[in-house]
Specification:
By secondary structure, the chain is an alpha/beta fold. It has twelve helices and 17 strands. Helix 2 runs parallel beside helix 9. 50% of the residues are buried.
Length: 383
């Protein structure tokens, strides 16, 4: 069976699976086969597929109001913003809502340029921030960029985890430095100890803003509610999406009051902050908090690091990550190993051509996670 619907634009690489249902950490195909999601949802299912509390919130809200223009007050939006800002340090209390991670980054870039009056954005090699033109200009991988060039000017890329290179790139034309606390699509590379503090220091000293892209790392994924909490820094802008509304499309750009006060211009979103997504978001945030999913990710991530520590060096270069965001870099292409895992009932994804990326729902049962790690060990030759 083809995984592409007749007439569907051929923009995604497709697997020969038709997924029809999800529950918790599991997915089922149209033939009735059950799979454990180790990344198939691309990090959007932190609270699990079809989380009952999110589904209930969606159902109740769908009977009341689906869509409302942002110029009208909405108690559902107000409550979601209250819950979201409660998870962040006090200066980060201005929220712009959109529909995706890419849109959240686009808004952050516009806010930074308009607030500082400067054009340049400094981003990192291996970084990924989205595929629309602005976010793509911040994204590094040439294969993503080349077909759409020329892109937006005034984007500069520097090596990740290199404070000297970062400091040399930030000048009086720089509006912002845009970084992921853990580079996801780029192979699961965490920021080195002290790197984000250096980024905060250099941006503050030179009048630029610090934007941290938490689209993949936020909402408990790395063992903290926000990955930047480990560094002790407070950015000027944070972007969020993926699991923010339990699988319902949403994006959030959270800025300080100072950024809002300096902002000159207009930026809006027709569907951003719609009541349906906000109701789902409130339910997902409450579930994440109440069930201590960040702490759970930290514990299960520790189990993974222990179980994957002795993978054969002839196959594996390095195991990296934080919490339940794990990258296994191989000495050869990852695709055959991903296919082997799929044949065993495990759906993992790549993080570049040579990296197996594990992003399971944070609700995954501990025994199933242990079984999945054993399957990874067996697949990589350490049974």
């Amino acid at each position: 069976m083809s995984a592409r619907a007749p007439g569907e634009f051929a923009s995604f690489p497709r697997h020969a699976l038709e997924i029809v249902r999800g529950e918790g950490a599991h997915l089922w195909d149209s033939a009735g086969h059950r799979f454990l999601d180790l990344g198939a949802s691309h990090g959007t299912a932190n609270v699990g597929h079809a989380n009952p509390e999110v589904v209930g919130a969606i159902s109740r809200q769908a009977r009341e109001l689906l869509q409302l223009a942002g110029s009208f007050a909405s108690p559902v939006r107000t409550e979601f913003i209250r819950r979201l800002t409660a998870t962040l340090p006090a200066p980060l209390d201005r929220v712009f809502l959109s529909n995706s991670g890419t849109e959240s980054v686009e808004a952050a870039i516009k806010f930074a340029r308009a607030a500082t009056g400067r054009p340049r954005i400094v981003a990192a090699l291996r970084g990924f921030h989205g595929r629309t033109l602005g976010a793509l200009s911040a994204t590094w991988r040439p294969e993503f960029r080349a077909p759409f060039e020329p892109l937006v000017p005034e984007f500069v890329h520097v090596p990740f985890n290199d404070p000297a290179a970062l400091a040399a790139a930030v000048d009086d034309r720089t509006a912002a430095v845009l970084l992921e606390p853990v580079q996801g699509e780029g192979g699961v590379h965490p920021a080195a100890d002290g790197y984000l503090r250096e980024a905060r220091a250099v941006t503050s000293a030179r009048g630029a803003l610090l934007i941290l892209d938490e689209v993949q790392t936020g909402l408990g994924r790395t063992g903290r509610f926000w990955a930047f909490e480990r560094s002790g820094v407070v950015p000027d802008i944070v972007t969020a999406a993926k699991s923010l509304a339990g699988g319902v499309p949403i994006g959030a750009t959270i800025a300080t009051g100072a950024v809002e006060a300096a902002f000159r211009g207009s930026h809006q979103s027709t569907f951003g902050g719609n009541p349906l997504a906000c109701a789902a978001g409130s339910a997902a945030l409450e579930y994440t908090r109440r069930e201590h999913l960040a702490e759970r990710a930290e514990r299960l991530g520790g189990l993974a690091r222990s179980r994957l520590a002795d993978l054969p060096e002839t196959v594996v270069r390095e195991v990296r990550g934080l919490g339940l965001m794990i990258g296994i870099e191989l000495r050869e292409r990852a695709a055959p190993y991903l296919e082997a895992l799929r044949s065993k009932g495990y759906l993992a994804i790549s993080g570049g051509a040579h990296v197996i990326r594990l992003l399971p729902p944070l609700v995954i049962a501990e025994e199933e996670w242990a079984d999945a790690l054993e399957a990874v060990r067996e697949t990589l030759g350490r049974g």
